[in-house]
Amino acid sequence: MQKDKDVAGVRPYDKPAGGWGALRATAKAIAEQMHTVDASRILLRTNQPDGFDCPGCAWPDKKHSSTFQFCENGAKAVTWEATKKRVPPEFFAKHSVSELLSWTDHALEDAGRVTHPMRYNPATDHYEPVEWETAFAEIGAQLRALPDPDMAEFYTSGRASNEAAFLLQIFAREYGTNNFPDCSNMCHEATSVGLAESLGFGKGTVPLEGFEHCDLIISIGHNPGTNHPRMMGTLHEVSRRGVPIIVLNPLRERALERFADPQNPVEMATLGATPIASSYLQLKVGGDAMALKGIMKALLALEDKRGGVLDHAFIAAQTIGFEALAADLRATSWEAIEAASGLSRATLAGVAEAYARANATIVTYGMGVTQHRHGTGNVQQITNLLLMRGNFGKPGAGICPLRGHSNVQGNRTVGITEKPSAELLRGIEQTFGFTPPAGHGHDAVAAMQAILDGRSRALICTGGNLAVALSDPEACAAAMRKLELGVHLTTKLNRSHLLVGRHSYIFPVLGRTESDVQASGEQAVTVEDSMSMVHASRGKLPPASPHLRSEPAVIAGIAKATLPASRLDWDWYVADYDRIRDAIEKVFPAFASYNERIRKPGGFQLPMPPNEFVWNTPAGKAMFRVYQPEATAPAPDVLTLTTLRSHNQYNTTIYDYDDRYRGVFGRRDVVFMNAEDLAARGLKHGSLVDVETAFGSLEPRRLKGFTAIAYNIPRGSIGAYYPEANCLVPLDYIDHQSGTPGYKSVPVRISKAA
Ligand SMILES: Nc1nc2c(c(=O)[nH]1)N[C@H]1C(S)=C(S)[C@@H](COP(=O)(O)OP(=O)(O)OC[C@H]3O[C@@H](n4cnc5c(=O)[nH]c(N)nc54)[C@H](O)[C@@H]3O)O[C@H]1N2
Ligand SMILES: Nc1nc2c(c(=O)[nH]1)N[C@H]1C(S)=C(S)[C@@H](COP(=O)(O)OP(=O)(O)OC[C@H]3O[C@@H](n4cnc5c(=O)[nH]c(N)nc54)[C@H](O)[C@@H]3O)O[C@H]1N2
Ligand SMILES: [Mo]
Questions:
Q1: Mean pLDDT estimate for the chain
Q2: pLDDT category of residue 395 using cuts at 50, 70 and 90
Q3: 521 torsion bin: left (phi>0), alpha (psi -120 to 50), beta (else)
């Protein structure tokens, strides 16, 4: 790496991930957000059997019954929710919406917890307090006045509990629409679509115990040291067991290189660390599908050479399509594979060798796989690879997508989907006695497009920051301002709330950490983790303000005011969440004895049919799927941009401006580039640059005046932070199979800043 010039805020960080650096960062988050005594009490309750589920990520916990598992970024998620800072009505009286729009995303959320329901007053340009019941009545009247229920959009971000998400989807369907844009549409939709086609099951197939039995892990496109920190405990154990871990990632993420477990007194005392990756393969951004094809092609060659490599019995009994896949692999040239992946034939053959030796392999993956123009294709190549050696239905094998938000998977399971199955529709009709709409609704991109061109006029958001999380913030802002009605259930203030339409409301809700008391007493909610375990979560802190309501209560309030003749007694459900769970169980038989089973510590496991060799595909078998890359090669000066999370952000929530493992401090306005790519453009480490999109004939989009830094990333690939770089992604730049935005493969050109 080039180090000839000092660049402000950029210096290498040579320590392992975790360790004392993580403890120091936690202490800082606590000092800035909470009273120390409250912090220790609340952090010790995280993921305990009678405590609340960590809102940080969806990685499971050992039965929710182990001792406190230290996690820096979990602690940040908790302390930022349980902050002592408040945003009361006086705050809104002091700051107009126009003024707040000039604040940074960091400053908006750092202001603290919203304390009262608020309504926007266009005459004063301020949010003003409003009574809950008044607001519900107004919203109900506006929703009823829409000419068509399909003109309303119901967004969920994956922190919502199963109970809240279920009530929301029942309300929206009784109202008459399947418009359910949700955060999964920007995240693991390629998984939901790709795995459903390949395996007949759109989720992961590995339970946590699987990691005790695997003898190879292939980790593709995820950064667990930052985004799933509790997974580091698992990877640390697996590595110490001597199991090889092969990483495919364009960036050398520190936690995948080496990790010091804060739970391990020896590592902490000796400043030691455990290596994580046994091989670290820095492929090109967007090169995954072709790298996987290379590994599979090499596997076929091994089978030809020595036999016994493929699981022929499994392929014959459980799958369809192997011949077509094999023919395509044989027809794909090594030149094409090497050019697209940036990895050599020898390297990929080495992975195939290791894979052929392993009896049980787990592939873990994240956004580096899904957020591409061919995200679904990527997911399906992973599945092909696993199917070739029968890595389903045996201990220590399977596919392990790392989910995003802590309950994003649960939201889907309880019916948040714009494409309802016949089974779901039947379940709803039988349980509630109304006929839900059957036509497909809008996903996140389609919803924003519909709002932009006036086909949709109302947006109800259960959490999230849709206008900032989606591509093309300019188009999103214009769309939000066209809304007749915008309603935001939230804990904190963010930019989406400030992009006001004709009628806009901010509703403050209870977070995970807070106790939720309804008519029948204290309530628990339930969530599902990445491994299909469902368990209870019970907040303990007193609510941030006495005016807060729970998400189920707010959804019920809006529903009751909107649907005077509703088939549901909304207050009755909210009085006791057991009743909501009984209804979930009626609609979804997999939740049998729901209330009984969540009362056991650790909860219960939903079925994973592929592990029983049950494939819910049209053919009743697992499907090999052929992937063909796009034929057009990009111009030689075009680079592929990937957008990244720093170590100190939670999606659009920016905790602070350091990204310590990548050696960037106090700033986010940087572009990570290969030194040779810099030199080829006459640029240096520290040069100010403009990034410009290269979508053929489309008008380029620009990100101006960012600082290029020389970084260990393959030639042809560059990185920048999300959400700063979202202005470079057109709204319709999506994976056509799943609708997932191509946030991680944007063609761009770089030049010296104008
Ligand atoms: N602290 C914290 N925790 C979080 C979140 C957070 O923002 N902060 N977000 C939550 C959510 S919603 C999600 S979805 C998850 C996200 O968790 P991850 O899936 O880890 O998400 P990212 O950080 O976007 O990107 C992951 C990795 O993909 C790599 N990558 C980029 N492009 C490519 C590519 O083309 N190929 C390959 N193979 N790799 C590539 C990047 O180098 C990076 O290491 O985390 C969840 N947990
Ligand atoms: N360029 C680029 N864009 C991306 C991504 C990327 O990698 N690159 N990643 C995408 C991914 S994976 C995702 S999941 C989306 C994220 O999209 P979203 O889920 O919409 O965004 P978040 O930033 O997670 O939402 C944060 C807000 O949720 C609210 N909130 C927090 N806790 C609660 C709660 O308990 N209840 C309620 N009601 N509200 C709460 C707070 O107001 C906070 O401001 O972004 C996507 N956008
Ligand atoms: Mo996500």
A1: 94
A2: very high
A3: left
Which residue's CA lies nearest to atom 38 of ligand 1?
221
- Indicate which ligand has the atom closest to the C-alpha of 472: 2
Nearest to 580 by CA among 375, 432, 384: 432
The whole-angstrom separation of Cα 682 and Cα 750 is 11
**Phi then psi for 375, rounded to 5 degrees?**
-60, -45
Q: Please give the Cα distance from 357 to 278 (Å, whole number).
A: 15
Report pLDDT digits (tens) over 437-460.
999 999 999 999 999 999 999 999
Element (H, E) at 715: none
Rounded to whole angstroms, the Cα distance separating 106 from 108 reads: 6
Question: Which of the pair, 472 or 45, is modelled with greater confidence?
Answer: 472
Is the CB–ligand 2 distance for residue 654 below 6 Å? no
Query: Is the CB of 198 inside a 6 Å radius of any atom of ligand 2?
Result: no
Distance 285 CA to ligand 1 centre (A): 13
| pLDDT band per the 50, 70, 90 thresholds, residue 76 | confident
For residues 2 and 684, the answer to whether their CB atoms sit within 8 Å is: yes
- The residue count of the chain comes to 754
pLDDT tens column, 606-647:
999 999 999 999 999 999 999 988 777 778 899 999 999 999
Closest Cα to atom 27, ligand 2: which residue?
Answer: 464
Cα(644) to ligand 3 centroid in Å equals: 12
Q: pLDDT value at position 64?
A: 45
The fraction of the chain above a pLDDT of 90, given in percent, is 85
- Residue 147 contacts by C-beta under 8 Å, 6 or more apart in sequence? none
Please report which ligand is nearest the Cα atom of 465.
2
Give the Cα separation of 573 and 645 in Å (integer): 38
- Of residues 456, 457, 460, 501, the one with CA closest to residue 477: 501
86-185+407-592 topology per CATH: Rossmann fold (3.40.50)
- Nearest protein CA to atom 21 of ligand 1, as residue: 367
Tell me the C-alpha to C-alpha distance, in Å, between residue 61 and each of 65, 146, 574, 676.
8, 45, 29, 43
Identity of the amino acid at 42 = I
Long-range contacts made by residues 116-124, C-beta under 8 angstroms, separation at least 24? Answer: 116/88, 116/89, 116/508, 116/545, 116/547, 117/505, 117/506, 117/507, 117/508, 117/547, 118/89, 118/92, 118/505, 118/506, 119/503, 119/504, 119/505, 120/500, 120/503, 120/504, 120/505, 122/500, 122/502, 124/96
Predicted pLDDT at 592: 97
Q: Is the pTM of this model over 0.85?
A: yes
Domains of the chain, residue spans: 4-81, 86-185+407-592, 639-752
Cα radius of gyration rounded to whole Å, the chain:
25
Was domain 639-752 assigned CATH 3.20.20.80?
no
Question: Considering Cα of 598, then 604, then 606, then 607, what sign does the dihedral take?
Answer: negative
Distance (Å, whole) CA 130 – CA 119 = 6
Contacts of 40 (CB under 8 A, 6+ apart): none
511 lines ligand 2 (CB under 6 A): yes
| Residue 159 Cα to ligand 2 middle (Å) | 9
Asked whether the domain spanning 639-752 has the same topology as the one spanning 86-185+407-592, the reply is no
Is 182 a residue whose pLDDT tops 90? yes
Cβ neighbors of 636 (< 8 A, separation 6 or more) are none
